[in-house]
Amino acid sequence: MRDLVQEVRLHPSDLIQPYFVHDRDGDTPIDSLPNQSRLSIPSVCERSRTFYQNGGRAVLLFPVVDPALKDAFGGEAHNPHNLHARAVAAVKAAVPDLAVMADVALDPYTSHGHDGVLNAAGDVDNDATVQALVAQALVLARAGVDVIAPSDMMDGRIGALRAALDDAGFSGVLLLSYTAKFASHLYGPFRDAVGSGGVLRGDKKTYQMNPANAGEALREAAEDIAESADMLMVKPATFYLDVLYRLSQSTTVPVLAYHVSGEYAMLHALAQQTGTPFAALYHEALLSIKRAGARGIVTYGAEGVCLAGIMGNTTPHVLTKHT
Ligand code: PBG
Questions:
Q1: How far does the centroid of ligand 1 lie from the alpha carbon of residue 2, in Å?
Q2: If one looks up domain 12-308 in CATH, what number appears?
Q3: pTM, to two decimals
């Protein structure tokens, strides 16, 4: 009866797996992000294929850019043969039916670690950054990406991206806007993974949201929807379930959530400290996100959940050996 009346369930197709791809032969573990590695392009293709066969439907790719290619303007983002574009093309060729999403922002490419280009005062220049993001997105669209996911939080970028993609013949490429991305302290392991943390000068408070604000998220969403975003994202997830709930109640545009690197690492730390199975903690976290209204969840353990099959929601222990 408990199963019969259960309100939300997790399904592998709810989950989006992020992958970090580097331009090397082997895979290297990311110390601060348990069970995650920077992967070679062939490895990302292999993992994507298995993920798809196990019910996963979308992956989100992030490039780990060679420090020698970084500069103040993130110029490598516009190189049509950059690592990100090659990875997108390779995964699309290997698993054509899997949706390939690509994060768009300049932080993997800039020598200062910010998501955009800086003005003379050292602040991110909104409008100049929007132009750079458009060029970055067009490179990925030409490589065959299905979904562009701008994570930069500049104003006006959704409209500019939509217009540029349409003009270039990519009207079928969707926009997943990071609508409510907070200036959170939970991104540390991600910044380690892509190498943007050590170099970051200052913080991202001039463009990412204040953790104290929820109403602001609704205003951000209204702008993104007016500019024709196809999906919205709240990030991080578990500290911001109220925002997720309010957004998902107030719009018919699908709202997704990003269970970020720090949230994932935190559960591993608790599991290690207390002996509570990671799978049980993870399952409960994902259910809370679904309950708050997320249509999909970007999360580092997606692969593990999919390998375990559809999560029988009363038996989270099936995950233990995979995650
Ligand atoms: C960068 C970006 C970040 C994340 C996704 N895209 C980090 C940041 O804003 O510094 C974080 C994801 C995570 O922590 O898992 N634009």
A1: 37
A2: 3.20.20.70
A3: 0.94
